[in-house]
Amino acid sequence: MSKAMRLSSVGYRHRINTPRKTNPWAKSYAQGIHDIDLVIPKSSIMGLIGPNGAGKTTLLRIITGLYKQQSGTIDLSLAERRQKTGFMPEQVRWEGRASVAESLKEILLMNGLDSLPEKLLQIVGLAKRADTPLDELSQGMRQRLSLACALIGDPEILVLDEPMNGLDPLAQRAFAELLRKLASKGVAIIISSHQVAGMIDLVDTIALLHRGQLLIQGDVESVAKKLDVGQKIAISGSGIPPEGMEKDGNGWKGVLQGDPGELITTFQNQGLEFISPQPIDLVEMITAATGLSIEDTGLELSSSDMIPLKKWGEEE
Amino acid sequence: MKVLWPLLILFIIGAAWGLSDNNASLLGGIEIDSPYAVLYISSAFILLSATLGAVFISFDGISRDRISGVLEIKLSQPISRRSLGGSLILGHWAAIALPTCLLSVVAIVIIGERMGDYPSLGEVALYLGATMLVLLWYTLIQLIASSWADDMGSSIALGMGSWMLFTLLWLLLTTVVAGLLGVAVDQTSNPEWLQIQALMDLLSPNGLYHLLLEIPLNEVDRGVNTPVVVLFAVLWTALPTWLLLRRLQYLTP
Lengths: 316, 253
Fold this sequence. Notes:
The complex is a heterodimer.
Chain A: E1 3-12, E2 15-17, E3 27-29, E4 33-41, E5 45-49, H1 56-64, E6 71-74, H2 78-84, E7 85-88, H3 100-110, H4 118-123, H5 139-151, E8 157-161, H6 169-184, E9 188-192, H7 196-199, E10 205-210, E11 213-219, H8 220-226, E12 232-238, E13 246-248, E14 251-257, H9 260-267, E15 272-278, H10 282-290, H11 294-299, H12 301-304
Parallel strand pairs in A: 5-9, 5-10, 7-8, 8-9
Antiparallel strand pairs in A: 1-4, 1-6, 2-3, 10-11, 12-14, 12-15, 13-14
Chain B: H1 4-19, H2 35-58, H3 63-68, H4 70-75, H5 81-115, H6 121-148, H7 152-180, H8 191-201, H9 205-213, H10 226-249
Helix pairs in contact in B: 1-2, 1-5, 2-5, 2-6, 2-7, 5-6, 5-10, 6-7, 6-9, 6-10, 7-8, 9-10
């Protein structure tokens, strides 16, 4: 699979205000991302997964050319990245009296284009809203407008930061279909999302990010295998619960890992009535990769990226 | 702009109408003996209305996009930051400069018709040019302040604060400087005080605007040469422009 972009040992740390009595304007380095080696393949959808504060948005901003990496190399220059990527940031609050079409035209002009393609509005489902003022748009409509901005100029790489937020289930499905269509046309798509359950069917590859480090990258199955997080299967049946199964009304139920065929053979004489493969749990992947419990991963999220680090310590 | 139009009409047209009246008399025995004198005095009303308009239009020129997240989209576009900065400056400046210019032309016609005498073409060009420049300086100051502001509160504070500093507090600051230099500030005709005032005016857009407008007035001599005034006008245009473009070069959402 050919690559759209390659990042080698890329690092970036944020500078944040840390006022002191002697220097109220003092700044220190906070956590960002470091030593990221990432290959973004063409014609595929990559899911960038990690808890809050892991560095997902920072990495996406580097990919789009908003930030210049402080260390490491990227095979595209800053200008090339801005030229080749389309970026949809998280939760843009479009507001004002300007219409959807006027806002898009402003972005078109920044791309050296002057006419608004009717197709663009149709693709994102805003064709009937072209003249609607931004103040009258719902959150879902605003998300669509942000997506339209990202699609301007036929980008080779589409970078989407939490794109499903604010979209209703129907729009999410249409959105997923659109992304698959774009990927089939050669566009490299990279998505960060907290809706990990919904991503598993959408993405071709995943990259796990935690505390600014890229833990693992690859297709979903191989990553699951490497982390020893296999496919889970929910089973249920009637009668006396077999060993390891819990009682459920007049029957029993449980979740097991293993080959579906073997499970059917094992439980068919014990009242097995229902078998359903469960999606691979990406949260479980994160905890497996980091060694942290779900609670720990969730609780230490947001604080980590705002604490200035005096030294790039070993713990990172 | 809907709010600004009445303000601009009231101040610019109103000042021209009132000051061009043959029976108009000003405090301090200031004489209005020519159409250009009317323009010069009515420039004070430009500083109270049009510059405030520049503040209203530009104070959130960058910070509003930053707060809403739209700045992230704009900065990731393939346009060069220099072009983006140029369009920001031109757009915000034109939004206040064009109505002000239009109303100033109407004001000149009113003055000419009521006094029976028009200012010369050179005087009109100087008046309009200086007015456009002072609006550009305010636009640049506001956009720079806006690029620093992280929220709407600091945008308003920086925008209105800078306008109040140059419009209301500068004379106080000048008095403090004169006092520290041992110059008597209780006699307004004291040449030393006038010179300190003029030198301090070089550092303020409002003061420099008036120094530019004083160039054709032979009876006004505050001890600052015309080339120095022009040099400072160039510096006031070039330095903030450079600073804003530099800020934009490294601006992050």
